[in-house]
Amino acid sequence: MPSILAIVCVALAVVYGTLYTVLHATQSKSEPRLIPTAIPFLDSAVGIARHKVDYLVSLKRRYGLPIHTLRMPFQRIYVINAPQLIQVVQNKSNLATFVPTLLDFGMLFSGLSRRSKDTLTKAYGSHGNGFTKSVHKHLASGSDLHAATRTAVEKLTVGIRYSFVDQEQVGLYETLRHQLCQALTGAIYGAENPYDDPAVEASWLEFVPGISHLLYSPFPWLTAHKALKARARVIKAFQNYFETGGHTQAFAMIPEMFNTNANHGLPSSEAAKLEMATSLAMLSSGAISAFWLMFHIASEPDALRACREELLNLVVKEADTQSGKVKVVDLSNIKTQCSTLTAMWHETLRYHSTVINIKKVQHDTTLASEYFLKKGAIVMIPGSIVHHNTNTWGPSASDFDHKRFFTPAGRRNLSNTTAYRPFGAGTTMCPGRHFSTSVVLSLVAMTLLQFDVQPVEGQWQMPTKTNADMWNAMPKPDQDVPVRISRRVDEESTHTEWKFVWGDASGKKE
Ligand code: HEM
Ligand SMILES: *[C@@H]1O[C@H](CO)[C@@H](O)[C@H](O)[C@H]1NC(C)=O
Ligand SMILES: *[C@@H]1O[C@H](CO)[C@@H](O)[C@H](O)[C@H]1NC(C)=O
Ligand SMILES: *[C@@H]1O[C@H](CO)[C@@H](O)[C@H](O)[C@H]1NC(C)=O
User: Fold this and answer.
1) pLDDT tens, 442-456?
2) Fold of the CATH domain 118-355+422-501
């Protein structure tokens, strides 16, 4: 026995010595500093797998470096924390040096066949899979965005009317998630929306935990077996949707993507898989953001009062009826008329965002005349570090301040994508940001005007978010918060029937 133990010890020492030597021999002195490591190559991988974004935050706290190197098996990562360096990476003159890797993301978890990937690569080259292009074209601005938002608002009105039951006890996240799912997918997929089938929505939810396995596990078919079966059911529903012409009744973006890809030779069974990327964009961060926003408003009496008061600015028509009043609310003015609600939306994104921008270094380069970066390495910019930087945000950077973005001076930081980046930055900046912002704010507005939301526990308790997926731009709460939703009974609301619209029918406003 002792001799076996000795052999094992010697073997471990040799492995350790070898790894240590390899690590330091392959790390150039002029590269960003290497974080001290206990087990070369492995402790960073384990740290990220276990603590995700928090691992990067803890390194920043401990070492305070503007940029540092993490070595993983077969991959070097430069983590950038300092705004000055982020600015350089994002400078237009460096567009060809630091290339976003997000374009391939949809291909990684949608289950596309090798052949379809080749087809898409040939068709779109470095422009991803055509999906991102269509969203940029249709949802970033203009009359299509207006039309999609209007439909989503109609869906929310009906959804809330029929599914928010007075005095019912529900999970806050689950309730908002379901409403947004119906509104966003209804607006985009049209009358034959596959997510109208509760079984498809349930299958989607069963698939989501599998995404991390598809991205990071060597054997996803083993470790995410159930999730992959659930994905197959969603894909089947979309295949049926395309084959029965459901897309012909959808938002312009969907038939356009389908027809373009069909012309490139993609069969409907494969086009259905691409909708996993569209679905993920629509169904992940928006609902999580809505949850945190609602949590912060409902749990801060001052903020709640201010939000409700401002929402009355949106009433565009009032009429008396036999049983009381009808008030028509034009939600398209929400961003200009409701400063507290809008400020809290931005603060919710700043405070909670876990977004990490990832770019690949295309050739050896020297960043800011100081840091040598090697070709093939990954550059990571963790949004949560930037968003809690006290040089930018002052000593209250780590507090949730519902007034932070209330004043014009406070809002100035919002247009600076070095300082504020919940939707990313540059050419790949989230094209769904206006759509999701409008629809989430509408959902919250409709809820606040018509209902009281109270914690079942009696007191609001902020849930933890340590298990949140690293690929997500926003962290899902670890547990849902049980709430009771009841109709408001104060003077303003009793006997008032609220109607909600999004701008006038001409499509002028956005
Ligand atoms: C609050 C909700 C949302 C958040 C926080 C969010 C956040 C993000 C972030 C951080 C990125 C990466 C940007 C970059 O790396 O530069 C992104 C990309 C993207 N998002 Fe969103 N998003 C949201 C909602 C949506 C919605 C509703 C849609 C579509 C309907 C959408 C469509 C997209 C697309 C297509 C991309 C890829 C853009 C490209 O690579 O060119 N997002 N989003
Ligand atoms: C971007 O890079 C160019 C060329 O190196 C430089 O002249 C310019 O000042 C940079 N802009 C910013 C905002 O850093
Ligand atoms: C944007 O924010 C960064 C970080 O706070 C700051 O260094 C930079 O000067 C700002 N840029 C502009 C144009 O205000
Ligand atoms: C960002 O906000 C802080 C605190 O309000 C302010 O001191 C700073 O000047 C702002 N930065 C920009 C670029 O507006």
Assistant:
1) 999 999 999 999 999
2) Cytochrome p450 (1.10.630)
